[in-house]
Amino acid sequence: MKVLHAITGASGVVFGKRLLEVLSERDEVTVELVISDAGRKLIDRELPESIEDIGALADERYGQGDLAAPPASGSTYYDAMAVVPCSVSTLSHISSGIGDNLITRAAAVMMKERRKMVIVPRETPLSTVHLEHMMKLSREGVVVLPAMPAFYGSPESIEELIDFLVGKILDQLGLENELYRRWEEVE
What we know:
Layout: E1 2-7, H1 13-24, E2 30-35, H2 37-46, H3 51-55, E3 60-63, E4 80-86, H4 88-96, H5 102-112, E5 116-121, H6 128-139, E6 143-144, H7 158-173
Parallel strand pairs: 1-2, 1-4, 2-3, 4-5, 5-6
């Protein structure tokens, strides 16, 4: 499986980092990575790891401005794209068909090719405009998976809350995982 993973400028880059860690541990998954300029700033602010450490988890890395990179073309095949976290600005650009950087262009390609895409917005509260953009994307087949952890599994750490969300993303990508307690496992 070949996955394009994008990290944008929304707080919660820990979700994107954890997804990248889990995907990079799987032999059957090739991960290519794009980090937006704003995402880079948030990695510096929110994580102890450096941009280089995060990038080293991917099989291939591209710059946000590289519109000649393989993800910008529909002739490059990806099984799925995950934008984690996804800023509402990026979400709105994708919804409006504005491919002004590699992330939004790659998302436009994924949508036109009818390939799997998961977007994880991390914003609160949401305006009506945000919700309308999410609804528009959902109608196009994009999975909109807000960063909303569950508590039915009685999580004991922030890491368990993060793994719950990453497990849900993996479910949508069609990748089996045991990152979180499923409803039927709750006693």
